[in-house]
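Sequence only, no structure available. Ideas?
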Amino acid sequence: MIPAHAEAAAQWARLGGALALLAIDPGGLGGLWLRARSGPVREAAVAALPVLPLPLRRLHPGIGDEALFGGVDLAATLAEGRVVTRPGLLAEPAALMLPMAERCPTGLAARLAGTLDAHRHALIALDEGAEPEESLPSALADRLAFHIDLSDLRWRDCPGFVFDAAALAAARALLPEVRLPDHAAEDLVAVGLRLGIASLRAPLLAARAARAEAALAGRAEAAVEDLTRAVELVLVPRATRFPEAEAPEDQPPPEPEPPESPEPPPEAEGEEQQSPGEIPQEILLEAAKALLPPDLLERLAGAKPARGSKGSGAGAARRGNRRGRPLPARHGRPSGEARVDLVATLRNAAPWQPLRRAHATDPDRPLHIRMGDIRLRRFEEKSDRLLIFAVDASGSAAFARLAEAKGAVELLLAEAYARRDHVALVAFRGQQAELLLPPTRSLVQTKRRLAQLPGGGGTPLAAGLRAALQVALQARGRGMTPTVALLTDGRANIALDGAADRARAAEDAQVLARSLRAQGVPGLVIDMGARPERALRNLAAEMACPYLALPRADAGRLSAAVSAALE
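Reply:
I predicted one. Tokens follow.
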């Protein structure tokens, strides 16, 4: 077991090595993903960033295209009476520092990824995520060579860095002449494959890191120790599995050894024992095994998938499907995502017109607008709420449950016109689930669809949850906020594949419940059985949602319970 202080010192040393290589080839290596909460440890790491040979430029997760790529300088245009453009932050090579990188929206991640592909800029992504699912978008993480996690370090574990500026400058001058040995690229790809790294950018970045390490050591060709260092800094943090102990299955079996000879032929002088490229790959793989944390599998099992395009992770923007209520205008800079409130701008500029005409070079101009006068329109965007009823239509009590669900849906729809709610109905029985009522606010359509509902058969609870999840994801894509209300007695006996197996049916239902929680879909589990079922209570825990036992609930009580639970 490695002591905690030794592991902290090793992680801090890896950060120093990554910064040194990044100072030699900032554009080629892409940058650094630094995961650490705001505090003295992260400040100590940020204090070492001036070693990079590029000017530091701080970005914001909400930065617009005009600030990035440039555009019309509205203040200078208004002052001079002609169109004046200004360059953006990406006009010149720079080291872009992105705080709160876990909140980086998809659009900004795509723009920065395209910028990094040009190999002119470097990105320092400061990830402050508190949970595993709060992380840098994968499009950016894939393009940054170094991934360093300082979350478990303390201030006393960070002694600071001392870089030799002359040595770094000499390494930058030598870097174009450094080459990789034969088979080095193949070895890095093979090691990445054995570590479970699917992206080909990782071995390419490792090759660049090996060349930078060789340049720092003054070598014109990367040696085995340079490749090993590149594996440590680039490939090991990306590993998703331990490399197999045995050879891959697609390799041919080893040839049988020849019988021993009493007088083996002498080896020729200077003859190499093994062909080039065989030793480095094994050495690199053994080095990777030694550097992998022993709890890698536990970390990967406990971590959720990286945040996607929308609806997951801290700071994920909530997109409304209608404009919402207007809010008071505020001062700001116009961009492609914000519109100017003309009336508020003129109202703010009107009191200053006499003073501005008196000091203007062209007093005959009818209106003098300054940048401080600009006011932007704002709206409080809201999403329509969708209640998805997943109703158990199996067994002898199916008709009673469907009647209760029908009455509850109609009662909720009566209030939908005031609250702008939508309602959908999924019924599951036999071996499958069926969407009986798509998301709607039409009371007439609801009564027509609910007039005749079939019942009886098995209880495919997992199929009902899967159908509800599909409806929820489709509704979220249209800007709605879905919520799933599950009505069942909890006696699942049909698995997802249609087999009559209670154990597999319960296991499939648990998997779908975790899927609903992973997608961030809120829910409610209503136990309609004569006696409360512990399995349904556990299912609600997997969904991270409330559990209600309502064995004899009529439509009115059911509607009131759903409304109270979802407020």
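The mean pLDDT is 78.
Hope that gets you unstuck.
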